[in-house]
Design a protein that fits this description.
phosphotransferase activity, for other substituted phosphate groups; 2% strand; membrane; two-stranded antiparallel ribbon; lipid metabolism; phospholipid metabolism; single chain; transferase; globular; Four Helix Bundle (Hemerythrin (Met), subunit A)
């Protein structure tokens, strides 16, 4: 082999993040296949797995210094399908098809709002002035979190078998509410900005371990509890951002 051609192959570090993104896409779309077969628990788990994979592909790309515009576009398209289209179809097949017109409208609204949120995120990548981001917050609910929140009625239904949680009108209104949160301008928590104080790091590690154990033993109740805690923290994040905004305004006047 000529010496000049050695080392010209594609580096693994350039492929790995995009491969994880592709795996997340496959997982999200597989959730639809499980829903077609009425395997609701597997459908929800497949989309949750897609969210977990989506949470690590970007971090691995930054760790390996393999960020690229191609990877960003692939990630956005995968997110739209895995966290917009897939949850909408799963919830439609699970419940909303019993309310054909309004149910399909709610499913479409969720998928469209997810795509709009991702488009807004992409449009702001190169924008220098991002008040929420500079203060350590996100704008609206992220797409993977929105997909997880959308499944809250399904979590509760699997855990309790209460028919109220599968009621099409309830699911449609809930889906519309989460769709609104995704495209809203509300300041929401950014997990990367959460930094526990050093004096409680052992307690934080213990809490993380307990949550993981709860996911193994009572997954549906635990997922429901995580959703409720996240929603309960939203007013706190809005108030905290308002405090930061007032501080910045006061500094600008000075």
């Amino acid at each position: 082999m000529p010496a000049g051609r050695i080392g010209r192959g594609l580096a693994l570090r350039a492929v790995l993040p995009n491969a994880i993104t592709a795996a997340a896409l496959c997982s999200g779309l597989t959730g639809i296949r499980f829903a077609i077969d009425d395997q609701w628990e597997r459908a929800a788990f497949a989309i949750i797995l897609a969210g977990m994979l989506d949470g690590i592909d970007g971090r691995i790309a930054r760790l390996l210094k393999a960020q690229s515009r191609f990877g960003a576009e692939l990630d956005s398209l995968a997110d739209s399908l895995s966290f917009g289209t897939a949850p909408a179809l799963v919830l439609f097949l699970w419940s909303l098809q019993d309310l054909p017109r309004f149910g399909w409208f709610a499913a479409l609204a969720f998928a469209i709002c997810c795509a709009l949120r991702l488009a807004r995120f992409n449009a702001q990548i190169d924008v220098d002035e991002q008040p929420h981001k500079s203060a350590g917050f996100l704008t609206g609910v992220p797409a993977p979190v929105g997909a997880g929140l959308a499944f809250l009625p399904l979590y509760l239904w699997v855990a309790t078998q209460e028919p109220i949680f599968r009621e099409p009108l309830v699911v449609a209104l809930w889906l519309a509410f989460i769709a609104f949160l995704m495209i809203s301008n509300l300041a929401t928590l950014s997990w990367g900005s959460i930094r526990p104080r050093r004096n409680i790091r052992l307690e934080a590690i213990a809490l993380a371990g307990l949550v993981f154990a709860a996911l193994l033993t009572e997954p549906w109740w635990t997922l429901a509890a995580i959703c409720i805690v996240y929603l309960a923290l939203m007013p706190w994040s809005i108030i905290s951002y308002g405090r930061v905004k007032r501080q910045r305004a006061a500094q600008a006047r000075d």
